[in-house]
Amino acid sequence: MNPLTNYVEVFNKNDSKLFAELFADDCIFYDTAPTCAGMDPMFVRGKEGVDMIFNMYFHSMPMSAKPVSLNGNVLDYIICYPGIEIPCRGELLEEKDGKIARYHVCYRAE
Question: How many CB atoms sit inside 10 A of residue 110's CB?
């Protein structure tokens, strides 16, 4: 099964440990989408890093994702922060044992 199938559903639980389970132990997660809202890009290595950074995000502000489409290894969705919605495109670049090994998120112009 494509590891992106449940990405939005798991993200919306705001549980960093559960979210990190979607990722391989040695994953690379790179997200440039926040730069369009004046925030820093996110570069994370390893499942533990995913857990740590999203634990911080989930506890510091309400976040949710709205799915738009899933086409193979490309997931289009909207990340919602308080007062900000960012259209995103996530691309699964590498999968390892059914887990996300390399994932890149960028701003998706609508």
Answer: 7
